[in-house]
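Quick illustration, no need to memorize.
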Amino acid sequence: MGAVDHRLRARAHAHGSRPRGEWPVVAFSPRKASISLYGLHEPHLREHGVDELVAQLGKVKIGVGCLWVGRLSTIDLDVLASLVDRAWVHTRGAV
């Protein structure tokens, strides 16, 4: 495992219409038109200030529980790191 891989450990998940089982805390999926970032805009994180961080992130599209980034050069990578940290802490606990 690499230095950042610990952030991708699975969490138990039984939420809404999603199947039960293990889901990563944070994940990404490169697509043709954009990069999908999962786990950074989940409803349980809203009370922990993620909306303010997303507003500072840069050019993104917001989905239900995911963010779409066209190019990494259009976002603030330090803010992205803060979002990943916040998602980790409030989903799994402090490292």
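Residues 9 and 24 are 6 Å apart (CA to CA).
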